[in-house]
């Protein structure tokens, strides 16, 4: 009888010890997991703060909104075309004036490629000027090019998503600083790129 009681007592002790051990292990795992999450947050903060170092104050300011009618935009296109034909100097203001800032402007700009209009050369010149000046961050072209994300579509969108990476990777710090000033739709479209460049969160295959 005493032997049976002793066996039960030992079994109780072993079970109790195992429960305590499991509880301690669980607590250790929880603490370790918390530390990993904290480290990840610190890494993200470090990356974002590092990218914000040495950013010019002017790069954090939202550019003034361009307000113009579609007819004014069409006139800008004509003026750009005349300057190009006469081999006149194309200024950054000229390029900004032909960069689409609305869906209506983009539709007209892209219509230059249509067969019945047949102004492919003009379209190519404008497109090259927009991209070159965005990459080089001249005037407000970097911001304007990023904010085009909200209304582009079709074949142009396919090329845009390739070129915008080049534009961004050439201006990482400014991208991180000015992203907050983009339109809601542009931010949504460029969000995965923003997280990768500014927060160190790798994009998934479907984000490209």
DSSP helical segment count: 9
Number of domains: 2
- Radius of gyration based on Cα positions: 29 Å
Helix-strand makeup class: mainly alpha
Ends distance = 74 Å
| Share of helical residues | 55-70%
Number of strands: 0
Major pleated sheet: none
Strand coverage percent: under 5%
Average pLDDT, to the nearest integer? Answer: 80
Overall morphology: globular
- The run of helices and strands is HHHHHHHHH
Query: Which consecutive residue ranges, at least 5 long each, have pLDDT under 50?
Result: 1-21, 30-48
Keywords:
single chain, 208 residues, mainly alpha, 2 domains, 70% helix, 0% strand, globular, disordered N terminus
Task: Outline the fold blueprint.
Elements: H1 2-52, H2 70-85, H3 92-98, H4 103-111, H5 120-135, H6 141-147, H7 154-169, H8 172-178, H9 184-199
Helix pairs in contact: 2-3, 2-4, 3-5, 5-6
Task: Explain this structure.
This protein has helices spanning 2-52, 70-85, 92-98, 103-111, 120-135, 141-147, 154-169, 172-178, 184-199. With 208 residues, the protein is mainly α. The chain has two domains: 2-53; 60-207, no CATH class. Helix 2 runs parallel beside helix 4, helix 3 packs across helix 5 and helix 5 packs across helix 6 (141-147). It is globular.
């Amino acid at each position: 009888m005493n032997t049976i009681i002793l066996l039960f007592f030992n079994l109780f002790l072993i079970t109790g010890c195992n429960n305590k051990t499991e509880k301690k292990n669980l607590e250790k795992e929880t603490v370790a997991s918390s530390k990993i999450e904290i480290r990840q947050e610190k890494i993200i903060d470090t990356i974002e703060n590092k990218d914000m170092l040495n950013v010019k104050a002017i790069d954090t300011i939202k550019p003034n909104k361009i307000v113009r009618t579609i007819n004014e935009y069409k006139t800008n296109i004509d003026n750009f075309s005349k300057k190009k034909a006469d081999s006149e100097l194309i200024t950054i203001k000229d390029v900004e004036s032909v960069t689409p800032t609305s869906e209506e402007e983009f539709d007209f700009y892209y219509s230059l490629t249509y067969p019945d209009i047949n102004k492919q050369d003009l379209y190519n010149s404008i497109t090259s000027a927009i991209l070159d000046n965005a990459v080089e961050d001249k005037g407000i072209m970097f911001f304007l090019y990023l904010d085009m994300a909200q209304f582009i579509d079709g074949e142009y969108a396919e090329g845009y998503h390739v070129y915008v990476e080049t534009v961004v990777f050439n201006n990482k710090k400014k991208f991180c600083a000015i992203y907050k000033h983009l339109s809601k739709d542009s931010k949504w479209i460029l969000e995965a790129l923003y997280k990768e460049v500014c927060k160190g969160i790798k994009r998934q295959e479907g984000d490209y």
